[in-house]
Design brief:
heterodimer, A: about 350 residues, alpha/beta, Methane Monooxygenase Hydroxylase, Chain G, domain 1, Pectate Lyase C-like, 2 domains, 12-stranded parallel β-sheet, 3-stranded mixed β-sheet, 6 helices, about 30% strand, elongated, B: about 180 residues, Rossmann fold, 6-stranded mixed β-sheet, 6 strands, about 25% strand, globular, nucleotide-binding (chain B), lipoprotein (chain B), GTP binding (chain B)
Amino acid sequence: MEEEQYQTKQTPITNETLDSITQSKHEAMLSRLSNLHQSRLLQQSLTRNSSDSNSSFESTKSFLTNFSESKTSIESQLHLCRNPDSSKPTLKSDLNNISTSITDLERFVAENSYFLPSYEVRASLKTISDLKETLEIANSELLPKKKFSFKNKSVVKKEMSNAEPVVRVCDSVVAEKHSVQVRDSLGFRNEEGVVLVKHFGGAKEGDFTLSDLNGCEVRITGCFRALYIHRLKDCRVFVGPVLGSILIEEVEGCLFVLASHQIRIHHAKGTDFYLRVRSRPIVEDCNGVRFAPYVLDYEGIERDLKESSLDEETGNWENVDDFKWLRAVQSPNWSILPEEERVSGVNISSSEALSIDC
Amino acid sequence: MGLLSIIRKIKKKEKEMRILMVGLDNSGKTTIVLRINGEDTSVISPTLGFNIKTISYQKYTLNIWDVGGQRTIRSYWRNYFEQTDGLIWVVDSSDVRRLDDCKMELDNLLKEERLSGASLLILANKQDIQGALTPKEIAEVLNLDSMDRTRHWKIVGCSAYTGDGLLDGFDWLVQDIASRIYVLD
């Protein structure tokens, strides 16, 4: 096929009526094609030298011989696996080997497809997909399917090593739900009616989680990378700049003061958000949520905000997108907090007492 | 002239790849696309709908469909399945709590017949965040080893924030797709 294209393109060159620009384009194309052809020939001679029997000779006949040999060998292997006398322990690796051989055969067809008649390519591809199907059937019949299931892991509580002057230190809890043991991130979990304080000192620390808190007050100062909030009720949460994103799910009757690059709010009810955010915050499955600008203050917050590129008020706190309300008119699920109802400033500099100016 | 332009068109078409990028919300899909294209990643809003990005990668043209991952719009993912050469599944490696969700959505996706031939690249994103799970741990939780043997897949740790690992992942994906695509006509 390559040869044919090559010749067809030589004809217009001899036509003298062509203007010089077209001619030079033709020449460029021609040289490119001939380069391609040369490199292919070169590659072929290389593969011919490196391997003997399996190399392609640009001949349909030798391709077909090789192809049918591989096909027969795969079929006989498959047949062996289906034989009930075959030993069980090697069955899985046998089937794996067959799968590899089919992939190899597929690659072989791919490598040679450029010179084969299209009928042969299609026929070979059909054969390969048939082989794959047979293998799949063999797999499902011979190997019992492994089922994914969750197992309960015992909960291990561990005190955090670098204890800060905090009201309650944060826990590191091993996740319960996964069958594979995965460590959980730093965070405050399962607390009721307490004040929780955390300070991030170093530059841009990791992520932090707040989950299952009831009637708590959370104060986090310093920069960190990501915040995950899950299942909070009647809490007040004050957070310094978050360099990455904040994800909030299932909160009710809370007050949040947050600064971040991205904020996503899911399943929130009757909650006020005071935000500084570089992009548009989004809500999904929320109702009765209200928004106002960021009001947090603590010693050194200017520096932290600047470090996280959150020092500038973008006005995005009111550009809320509601994924449950994709229309031009204002969503009924959220509103702007009237100015007279907003708190005017929150200072969390001292961990002893919280001052809120109303 | 007619013949030449037809040949050029075919040549151009051959080198195009359609890549579908999905994953839970907050996993960093849009940031990855912008980072790999060398664009500003400092202001990215959660994707409402989808973005299409055409980028030249090695000698190929990649059409990347970056589809939003919020729960409400996940049901629209199926509108983008047709003709997909490569599938990129992005995981937030520091979001341990939602890994079950992540596994469930990925399993549903892989049952889809229209995606059965697509190479699968799993990007374990946010590796730069302290405490993020490693690609190996993610692979275990997602039970990737039990995947259909005919599927070409690979998991790569990356950080859209620093750019680490992105090229490794895309290199593999593009090579894998290129080795599968046949010149039929």
